[in-house]
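REQUEST FORM: STRUCTURE PREDICTION
Request ID: SP-0412
Submitted by: Lab K.M.
Chain count: 1
Length (residues): 316
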Amino acid sequence: MVEDYPRTMMELEQRFSTEEACREYLFKLRWPMGFECPRCGGVDAWEASRGRFVCRSCRHQATVTAGTIFQGTQKPLTVWFRGIWHVVSQKNGTSAVTVQEILGLGSYLTAWTWLSKLRRAMVRPGRDQLNGRIEVDETYVGGEEDGVDRRRTETKSLVIIAAEEDGPGIGRIRLGCIPDAKRKSLHGFIETAVAPCAVVHTDGYPAYRGMESLGYTHEVTNLIRENDKTAATRLLPRVHRIASLLKRWLLGTHQGAVSSRHLEYYLDEFTFRFNRRKSRSRGKLFYRLLQQAMEVEPAPYKSIVGGIENAVSHKM
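STATUS: Completed
RESULT:
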């Protein structure tokens, strides 16, 4: 499919002013080669009422939004499109309070749920793994803890970061929440995020050992003085730069009101934005996010809002 997207907010409003126009656009994103039955794979269907398509092979009734993050939505797609444009237009992201105000949504919870659904679409299924020379390290999110060393925590969330080296700069990144800093957790993330045969650069933490058996070249930089707080930043500058930007983003855009339960999805948003930071086209980001939204399975409302009460009370 040729990439086709609005270039400006005005073009968006003119082009997607009706539900029919939005559904036609989503149809092209979901089925660029024509209708394909979600149940049997049949390619022949007739269009029934209320936007339904009936497969001629198995008689399954499908809609363009069924099986996507838009499934079951009670809000018009025109409002969704405006919301998605706003989300991708903000360089540093947006808060649920702002989305609620801009779109005129009835509640903070509705806006928060919308953003949570979109964050789930910011990770493309089957995305490419990182390649080349990759820095890997962990950081903690969640404030200070007294009497706890660097790789142990009682209340904070442990986030692992992988960053491609791009000359002196940073290429693509991957982030993830892990339960602990043990070998199984560290190696599991690396196997998911980094392509085999890549060079993985870490500090001398023992749990990283053994990566050669997984097909990686493991480069280790040992910290000479453990009490030198700047050594890790100098020796693994890219992942520490990402850690700093992540914490600043969580505190700035979201005022630190992110629960550990939902942190993984905020990491997905941060990754989506960082890896596309050089894109000059908001329209293309709009296109990419909608394209990925059509590939992500629906998230039940109850599974999203579980535990949101604390986040709402903190935020409000």
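NOTES: The beta strands are 45-47, 52-55, 61-63, 133-141, 157-166, 169-178, 199-203, 217-221.
Reviewed by: T.R.
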